[in-house]
Amino acid sequence: MAAQRVWRNRSLVQTLGLSESDVRVVLTRAQELKKMWLGWKGSEFPHASLKGRTVVNLFFESSTRTRSSFELAARRLGGDVLNFTAETSSVTKGETLFDTARNLEAMEPDLLVVRHASAGAPLQLSKMIKVPLINAGDGFHEHPTQAFLDVFTIEEHRGTVKGRHVLIVGDIAHSRVARSNIYLLKTLGARVSVCGPPSLMPPSIEKLGVSVFHDLRKALESADVVMMLRIQLERQNQMQFPSLGEYSKFWGLNAETIGSLKEKAIIMHPGPLNEGVEISQDVATGSYSVIMDQVRNGVIVRMALMDLMVGHD
Ligand code: ASP
User: Fold this and answer.
1) Which domain range does residue 167 map to?
2) Is residue 59 part of a domain?
3) Which pLDDT score is estimated for 57?
């Protein structure tokens, strides 16, 4: 049977529930676009599939990498981008998310990219409007494009994720990155483990099919991929561990703890980094780290998604 080549869903709200072939369509298109990108020397990227299309970036929560990466991705494909941030919009005058979106919809954009502090807001929006939508992170629910770029980066460095041991370390309870990655990695057949302070571990996490480690050094010994997470202080009512120094001592990656790693292991981080807390500066820039590749691939993977969702044939 021929491999699936098209994106069959209207929007991308979460990685939960995506089929393996849905995921492979995106990863394959990203590979094709990356090849094109690396071989490209001219002034205008040859694959202008978003020419005449308008992408609206609707960010109700701050972002550096994600927002600029969506913008760059749309522009590389020849699209127009409208950036809309909550601080400079009528949201500050009391306009609701849905009013804002309906008004933007009336301007007939082709794609909405939405980040919101409330889990579930992009899903609600996608049900109320007809424009395709990509979730760029909602509360501690999901951040699907981050998981796509993470898997793409892992496969570039280590081949298929199937059967690989991916260890996610840190604030699992508040992390949308962890959730989206767990679903996507499990769909592709990876072995996923989590490690972190018990107070930052969601209850019944094992039900997602992941194993739990309480000893970081032990967990590192068998990991092919280590994903470090930022402590999401903004999503905690109170700090759920004694101090950042204490956290770093038990759950941080540094010159000493990486001594437990396999030779070919890779270290990832979605950014922004809390240097000296979950990861030391020398480890973040050292030979195991693929963090800058994640940032580069973020643009490519978002190009692939936009191309598949709203690009011209
Ligand atoms: N940039 C990621 C996110 O938006 C990770 C983080 O903020 O820690 O979820």
Assistant:
1) 144-294
2) yes
3) 94
